UniProtKB/TrEMBL annotation:
This is Uncharacterized protein. Residues 1-16 form the signal peptide. PROSITE patterns: THIOL_PROTEASE_ASN, THIOL_PROTEASE_CYS, THIOL_PROTEASE_HIS. It comes from Ceutorhynchus assimilis. SUPFAM superfamilies: Cysteine proteinases. It holds the Pfam family Inhibitor_I29. Residues 109-322 form the Peptidase C1A papain C-terminal domain.
Length: 347
């Protein structure tokens, strides 16, 4: 009896060791000799967390799976310290519009929507080791409005925001999504191609032509998922902030919001909503900026709450840009069309 127990234990640990090795290879992790032991310990603790969750998933107790990803060697604290959207301080935001949901008719809401299918969501990006989620959330919302208005889907530069939008925002150390949308309104933004991402804060450079200019933004009243749904369903992708910790090992399915608080620290983009027809569970569809190996090819689903206030703080500080124009040029079938003024184009 004793021997069998020990053998099982040995088999378990060597399996974990193999898993850790392949994790290191897959995610190109290099540790100093000193760090290796600590990272392996953290990894193994995380692995147990992942396995416990997936056991519950197999029993039908939770509707999402966890998996090993680039964050599997980090403690919860280390993980959370990477993604910083500053908590909203309303006193710093001037002349802000609030969504008047009376302008919408709730019966116009589609039952479900996935803006990716409408061709207005760019490829999933990877912020890497830089806490500029706020910039990624903002460019995602701008890209959506630009594509809706001009039928041109162009990746917009986060680096420009990181380097140049520095009055309040602090680059890789965090920022307000709203402040970024305000910057886009005042200064315009160029393409990712013109001003590429470098995962660090640099000097604000001169850039070639702007491709987008915001026309202000709208805040959605907090803690009301119906208002959020009206915006996502009828306006386009919406920037939100969430509590990121519980998503460290998320792999697929509808996250229940377990272990979530509304202490939001991470900016992401709502690109749709829907309902699982067999479980009847309603969810938000979100685009993250952690690369495509995380989650469902970079996306995730979060359950809608039972009391309409939103899980993980999703409805706490959401917003979207309005009156987004194409100031500079548009790409029409790869032909550069130059324009000196902002002209609303329809094609
Ligand atoms: C919000 O901003 C105001 C003005 O800058 C400042 O006095 C206040 O301490 C800030 N509050 C928080 C919670 O950061
Ligand atoms: C939430 O928003 C909807 C739509 O605007 C509104 O009808 C409802 O009264 C709001 N709920 C609360 C609690 O404010
Ligand atoms: C909302 O839309 C429905 C269906 O199109 C229509 O019957 C209703 O009158 C509209 N309500 C308002 C307030 O416009
Ligand atoms: C819907 O929910 C059922 C039951 O929880 C699950 O088996 C199925 O995989 C879900 N479907 C999708 C598309 O996630
Ligand atoms: C809504 O539900 C959540 C848990 O799902 C709870 O934490 C929160 O206090 C509730 N809010 C209200 C206003 O009932
Ligand atoms: C600006 O956006 C608001 C809200 O979407 C809209 O009502 C208004 O007509 C827009 N203004 C212009 C000039 O497009």
């Amino acid at each position: 009896m004793k021997i069998i127990f020990i053998l099982t234990l040995t088999a378990y640990f060597s399996q974990a060791e193999v898993t850790f090795r392949s994790f290191q290879v897959q995610h190109k992790k290099k540790y100093s000799a000193l760090e290796l032991t600590r990272r392996e310990q953290i990894f193994n603790q995380n692995l147990i967390k992942i396995q416990k969750n997936n056991e519950k998933y197999r029993k039908g107790l939770v509707s999402y799976q966890m998996g090993i990803n680039q964050f599997s060697d980090l403690t919860e604290e280390e993980f959370s310290s990477r993604f910083k959207t500053l908590p909203l301080n309303n006193t710093k935001l001037k002349n802000v519009l609030t969504q008047d949901s009376n302008n919408f008719n709730i019966s116009d809401l589609p039952e479900s929507i996935d803006w990716r299918e409408k061709g207005i969501v760019t490829e999933v990006k990877d912020q890497g080791l830089c806490g500029a989620c706020w910039a990624f959330s903002a460019t995602g919302a701008l890209e959506g409005q630009l594509a809706l208005n001009y039928k041109t889907l162009i990746p917009i530069s986060e680096q420009q925001l990181i380097d140049c939008d520095t009055k309040v925002n602090v680059g890789c150390d965090g920022g307000y999504i709203q402040e970024a949308l305000q910057f886009a309104t005042t200064n315009g933004l160029t393409t990712e191609e013109n001003y590429p991402y470098i995962q660090a804060r640099g000097y604000c450079r001169k850039w070639k032509k702007n491709v987008v200019r915001g026309g202000g933004y709208v805040n959605i009243l907090p803690y009301n998922e119906t208002d959020l749904k009206l915006a996502v369903g009828l306006m386009g992708p919406v920037s939100v902030a969430i509590h990121s910790g519980p998503f460290q090992f998320y792999q697929s399915g509808i996250h229940s919001g377990a272990a979530c608080t509304d202490n939001v620290d991470h900016g992401v983009l709502v690109v749709g909503y829907g309902k699982n027809t067999s479980s009847q569970e309603e969810y938000w569809l979100l685009k993250n900026s952690w690369g495509t190996s995380w989650g469902e090819n970079g996306y995730f689903k979060l359950a809608m709450s039972k009391n309409n206030t939103g899980l993980c703080g999703i409805a706490k500080q959401s917003c979207y840009p309005i009156n987004v124009t194409n100031c500079g040029y548009s790409l029409v079938q790869n032909v550069l069309v130059l324009g000196l003024v902002c002209i609303k184009l329809f094609f």
